[in-house]
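Lab channel / #folding
Pinned by the channel admin:
"Please post every new chain as: sequence first, then the structure tokens as a reply. Keep commentary short and put observations after the output so the thread stays searchable."

First post following the new format, from NK:
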Amino acid sequence: MDKKDIKKRTLKFSIRVVNLCKFLRENGGTGYDLSKQLIKSGTSIGANIEESQNAESKRDFIHKMSIALKEARETNYWLKILIATETKLEQRLLPLLNESNELIAIIHAIIKNSKAQN
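Reply from TO:
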């Protein structure tokens, strides 16, 4: 996977998270409260990957990618809570959960490979 792929993929993921959060906010309840956390972490993944592209050093790159990984894991957590509490949305949420799992694996591999190149 090249750098453009992960950037495109996280941008698409962020847009999907924003659209989900719009829906959750329109429908109120617990989903509304959780959407506040989800939108922050879900959009931060791509923002940190974007920042990593202009890192000042390999160490800085790894640091920014590590932040993206933390945000991906947090997003995964919020999605799991939403799946458990908003069962009527499970079919809409599962693809996002799957994508967040894949992003976690990809970002982890990028970090691991970057550390190995030192």
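NK: Residues 3-116 form a domain with the de novo design (two linked rop proteins) fold (CATH 1.20.1440.60).
TO: also worth noting, The radius of gyration is 15 Å.
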